[in-house]
Write a sequence for this structure.
């Protein structure tokens, strides 16, 4: 587990549970100090560029989590630099739960899954919500937002940590869905 991720997730409560179930606490890596920047390597960049969806988790003012699916063309989540991601946010169900939660707390988690390759990447980030009217044209060019697409805002993610998650229980997905759609 990368040092940044462990430092943010191995809280005292987590360490107590690790000790209860494992018989010992997992050791916090000391390879990086909190001031060291997170660097998305080529493996992470390639994986992110190949995704056409991810799950975005935010937390409300009441402390309850909210998980939202985000999808688009392959590569819609762009790597801007070694520690920044961004994507254009298009109109959805008009509930604005994720956007509202980010106004309260910019901290979020992303889970990206490649079911067929059985790989999963978790990202912890702070998200800046930038309305379309004030979005930087250079950023829009980097996001390759088609002219006239009705996006509402840009989400800019400052990555604080990432971790490649265990693939043990990822079931490959092939062929059409076998579930019926619900209204």
């Amino acid at each position: 587990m990368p040092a940044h991720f462990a430092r943010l997730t191995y809280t005292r409560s987590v360490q107590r549970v690790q000790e209860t179930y494992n018989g010992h606490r997992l050791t916090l890596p000391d390879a990086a100090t909190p001031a060291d920047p997170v660097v998305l390597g080529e493996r992470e960049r390639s994986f992110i560029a190949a995704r056409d969806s991810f799950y975005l988790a935010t937390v409300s003012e009441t402390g309850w989590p909210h998980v939202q699916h985000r999808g688009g063309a392959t590569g819609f989540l762009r790597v801007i630099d070694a520690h920044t991601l961004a994507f254009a946010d298009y109109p959805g169900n008009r509930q604005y739960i994720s956007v509202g939660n980010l106004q309260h707390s910019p901290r979020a988690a992303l889970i990206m899954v490649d079911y067929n390759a059985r790989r999963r990447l978790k990202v912890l980030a702070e998200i800046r919500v930038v309305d379309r009217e004030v979005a930087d044209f250079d950023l829009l060019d980097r996001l390759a937002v088609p002219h006239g697409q009705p996006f509402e805002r840009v989400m800019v993610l400052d990555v604080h940590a990432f971790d490649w998650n265990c693939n043990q229980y990822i079931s490959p997905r092939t062929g059409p869905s076998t579930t019926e759609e619900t209204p």
Observations:
- The longest strand covers residues 119-131.
- The chain has a mean pLDDT of 86.
